[in-house]
Amino acid sequence: MSAEPILELRNVHSGYGTIKALKGVSLKVYPGEVVAIIGANGAGKSTTLMTICGIIAAEKGEVLYDGKKINKVSPEKLPIKGLCQVPEGRRIFPRLSVEENLILGAFHRKDQEGINKDIEYMYSLFPILGERCKQHGGTLSGGEQQMLAIARALMTQPKVLLLDEPSLGLAPIIIQQIFDIIKDINEKNGTTILLVEQNANLALQAATRGYVLETGEITLEDKADALLHNPEIRKAYLGE
Ligand code: ATP
Question: Which contacts (CB < 8 Å, 24+ apart) does range 172-175 have?
């Protein structure tokens, strides 16, 4: 593990008006890791990702990316710097084709040859997207839209990919496919991944380390394997 985290939260507080959703969250993500944040409904998982991206302002504390404070960087600038989020609910462009969605993911890039190569790479990672390349994004199934959202984010060539509930609303077989690809992206491209998930079992199986978030506070941090075998975690989050 590299000595310096690529992403770090230091005592971050944020929320929605009087609702304090994050109450001093600190965490570190090192280059090459897959880190999972697990927690119940409403624990603050999505708020954590949105605060990292600046969609919600941190009221207190610091968000550091590549050693630099990014609290004041506007959200649309972050993908250009290599920090890209796949939001919950996918948010692809429904009236644009699969291919146009992918091209938009590369909005800041000028290397047309590289863009074409990456589109082909996305079709090799997600063959169904290649088959559906001319189809409107909005007509894809839920699982295909999730794949498109991940592929579009990868078109930005992220150093760090933030994934919000990649399993949400999908059939088990599709979830497994998506998690296999997440592992692949990490292993083959070296992309660092921070993912938040209600499905703790899946998330911890894919992750190297994990954090447990409870009502806006980190209550436990450990290697993913240790969390998977922790009786408290098994009882609270793994349905035992
Ligand atoms: P889930 O798994 O259900 O998506 P989560 O862990 O991602 O949950 P958040 O969505 O981050 O949780 O919500 C954290 C807290 O902030 C919750 O109490 C939630 O009700 C509140 N919250 C989230 N979004 C808003 C909003 N737009 N306005 C007001 N409160 C909000």
Answer: 174/142, 174/143, 174/146, 175/199, 175/202
Per-domain boundaries in the chain: 7-237
Indicate which atom in ligand 1 lies nearest the CA of residue 44. 11
Fold type of domain 7-237: Rossmann fold (3.40.50)
DSSP H stretches of helix in the chain: 45-52, 78-81, 98-105, 112-125, 127-131, 142-154, 172-189, 200-206, 224-228, 231-237
pLDDT (mean) for 19-41: 96
pLDDT at 140 over 80: yes
> What's the pTM value of the predicted model, to 2 decimals?
0.92
Q: How confident is the model at residue 2 (pLDDT cuts 50, 70, 90)?
A: low
What is the interface pTM, i.e. ipTM, of the complex? 0.94
Ligand 1 environment, Cβ below 6 A = 16, 19, 21, 39, 41-47, 198
pLDDT, one tens digit per residue, over 56-87 is: 999 999 999 999 999 888 888 888 888 998 87
Compute, in angstroms, the gap from residue 52 CA to the centroid of ligand 1: 15
Pocket test for ligand 1, best of 9, 47, 168, 202 (most atoms within 8 A of CB): 47
From ligand 1's centre to the CA of 240, what distance in Å? 25
